[in-house]
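User: Second chain of the day. Same drill as before.
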Amino acid sequence: VQLVESGGGLVQPGGSLKLSCAASGFTFSRYRMSWYRQAPGKERELVATISSTAGNQKYGDSAKGRFTISRDNAKNTVYLQMNSLKPDDTAVYYCKASWSFYEHWGQGTQVTVSS
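Assistant: Same format as last time:
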């Protein structure tokens, strides 16, 4: 089982980034996929989550109106489009796959929002 995040980096306030999480080793289309983030000294928090068929998305308060989660089951990949980024969005972003009793995490990708 592997989840590999990519697309992080340094961006100026107001800018955009699109994160990707490529999955392998499990039946991706069966799993709910989520993005979490963890800033230094803070607890990990839910950013966005999407159902297995992409029919349902939910967002944390910090992401509403700015971030969009999507998935491509043919490519075993989940995305997080982040717009209007703020310094408070600086964190390590993780993707998570969950289904029944099973849960898998990626290693994370750093997003830094700074001028």
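The CA atoms of residues 36 and 46 lie 4 Å apart.

User: Great, on to the next one.
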